[in-house]
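User: These chains co-purify. Model them together.
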Amino acid sequence: MITVSVICFVLLSLGAIATTIRLVSGPSLADRLIAADLLLTMFVMGIAVQAARTGDGLYLPVMIVVALVGFLGTSIVARLIEKRGG
Amino acid sequence: MTAVASFLLLAGCALALLAGVGVLRLHDVFGRIHAATKPGSLGLLLVCIGAGLMVEGVTATTQLVAVVVLQFFTAPVGAHLVGRAAYHSGLLGSRTVLDEGIDRDADAGSAESD
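Assistant: Joint model of the two components:
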C-alpha cells in the first residue's frame, strides 16, 4: 500500500504541476478559476490517498470543508467575471 | 480488498493527471472546463471508493460518501457558472465555433473575386 500511495502522490503531483502552470499563465481569469478549482479537487484526492495509506480517517472532515469552500469560491469568482469581464 | 483499492486509487490519480494535462494543453476556456470537470469528478469518485475500502469505521465511510455527493452536485453547477461567465465576457474563441456556412460563403466570395 505504501508503494501504491507513493505512485498515486507522484501522479497527483504531476497533474498539479500542469494545473499550476495553467494557473500562473492562463490568459483569462476564467482559466485561472478552472485551474484553482482543479487544484482543490486534487488536494481532496491527496487527502483521500493519505487516508487509504494510514487506514484512519483523521483528516477526512478537511475534505468536506475544502469541497464546500471550493464551490463557494468558484461561484463567487464566476459572478465577478460575469460582472467585470474576464 | 487491497488489490481492488490499489487499482481504484491508481485509476483515480491517473485521471487527475489526465485532467491536469487537459487543462494545460487544450486551447480554449470551454475545452479546459470540459477537461477539468469530468475527469476530476470521476477521479475523485474512484479515489474515494478506494479509500473507503481501506479505512475502518462508519464515520470515515460516511464522510467519503458525503465528499463524493458534494462533488457530484457542485462540480456541474460550478462548471456551468464559469462557462456562462466566460461566454458572456466574450471568451468564445474562433477555434471553438465551427460555422461551415460562413466558411462556404467566404470561399464562394473569394472564388468569385478571382
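Residues 29-54 of chain A form the longest helix (26 residues).
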